[in-house]
Amino acid sequence: MVGPVTLSDVAREAGVSLATASRAINGSANRTVGADLRARVLEAAERLRYSPDANAQAMARGRTTSVGLVVDDIADPYFATIARGVAHAAGRAGLQVILASTEQDPSREVEVVGLLQRQRARAIVIAGGRYDDERATSALREVLTGYRSAGGTATVVGRPVLGTDAVRIADAEGARALARALVGRGYRDVAVLGGPAAHVTARERREAFVAELAASGLPEPRVLVGAFDRQGGAEAMARLLADGPRPELVFAANDVMALGALTAARAAGLVVPDDVALAGFGDITTLRDVVPGLTTVRIPLEEVGVAAVRLVLEPAAAAPRVVHVATEVVLRESTPSRA
Fold first, then answer.
1. Where is the HTH lacI-type domain (predicted)?
2. How does pLDDT run across 73-126, given as a tens digit for each residue?
3. CATH 3.40.50.2300 spans which residues of the chain?
4. For labeling, which of 4, 21, 259, 336 is most exposed (least CB within 10 Å)?
């Protein structure tokens, strides 16, 4: 036979239709082939030395060997590190990762999940931040319900509000612990760069940090909201310094905002921590190159990605499961003791 052997060749050799040959070799999510007929097709395939297409087999069975990962911004080291954990765990399971970025647009999540469902992704991990947008949340919950009813599995990194399994990071607990540690170092005049007002993770960190300051007897800090990225941190810090007076300490609700704040402080002629102390949240890998070392709350981000993949690869449970991930305060040179 000239050229590679095709499935059509096998079907002709076995005297069956192409559809029957496909079901016999690749399997099917909906129809099966009798044992005798399947044996005939497999014997024909062996005689012709036919090699099945792995992707065709997966598609015929109703799923591929891919895991969809949906993030807010792949350029953000926070999501990039989670993605590394997802890729590592998926690779060990013989799966490939399809990465999609919503660019912080909640409505894009619905589009991406729908696309992944049409591509028959085996599982989906949603690692983008949640917003106080019930319409967007309901729409995402609905499309995920349809995806799961068709045999897919899904996990969200964050609050378990989508009817799926979840990997829950101890954001509020970490923010409270950081506030206690900084108060213990003698800080009293504090400002907060709190991220977007409607961003759930930013709000949890912001409110927990402020509540712990109040519990320690400190006055309510100035809180500025803005984009949850480096530019948002720089702009919020510039507004804070322009409005005055300058606080002793600035807490940013994530590390990339803190790095933006550091840039704005230097642009204003200030030295961190001599003129103003600074703290963030996340302990992203970029901090290894930052001077002074940034005080932050460490999240084991790669472990978060691994935990999410483990959940989506396990058989579905009767009720959504939640894996809790602890955080840890890391005190560095950006917040020296004032006590």
1. 5-61
2. 888 999 999 999 999 999 999 999 999 998 888 888 899 998 898 888 899 999
3. 66-169+302-326, 171-298
4. 4
Rounded distance between C-alpha atoms, residue 26 and residue 134, angstroms: 42
Q: φ, ψ for residue 170 (rounded to 5)?
A: -80, 65
Helix (H, G, I), strand (E, B) or coil at 166: strand
Summarize pLDDT for 272-283 with one digit per residue, the tens. 999 999 999 999
**Nearest by Cα to 254 from 222, 289, 286, 276:** 286
Q: How far apart are CA 100 and CA 54, in angstroms?
A: 24
Would you give the DSSP letter of residue 289? G
Q: Are 97 and 66 in contact (CB under 8 A)?
A: yes
3-state class percentages of the chain: helix first, strand second, coil last, to nearest 5: 45, 15, 35
Kindly give, in sequence order, each residue whose CB lies less than 8 Å from that of residue 3, ignoring residues fewer than 6 positions away: none
Q: Which two tokens stand for residue 62?
A: 């109703």
- Measured CA to CA, the distance from residue 177 to residue 181 in angstroms comes to 6
pLDDT (average), residues 164-177: 97
Output the CATH code of domain 171-298: 3.40.50.2300
pTM: 0.81
Joined together, the tokens standing for residue 251 give: 């807490």
Report the candidate in 304, 311, 254 with the shortest Cα–Cα distance to residue 278: 254
Q: How far apart are the first and last CA of the chain?
A: 85
| 214 pLDDT above the threshold of 50 | yes
CATH of the structural domain 66-169+302-326, one choice from 3.90.780.10, 3.10.129.10, 3.40.50.2300, 3.40.1620.10:
3.40.50.2300
Q: How many CB atoms lie within 10 A of CB 278?
A: 25
3-state helix/strand/coil string of 57-75: HHHHCCCCCEEEEEECCCC
Beta-strand ranges (E) seen in 180-312 are 190-193, 222-224, 249-252, 277-279, 296-298
C-alpha angle with apex 284: 281 to 289, nearest 5 degrees? 115
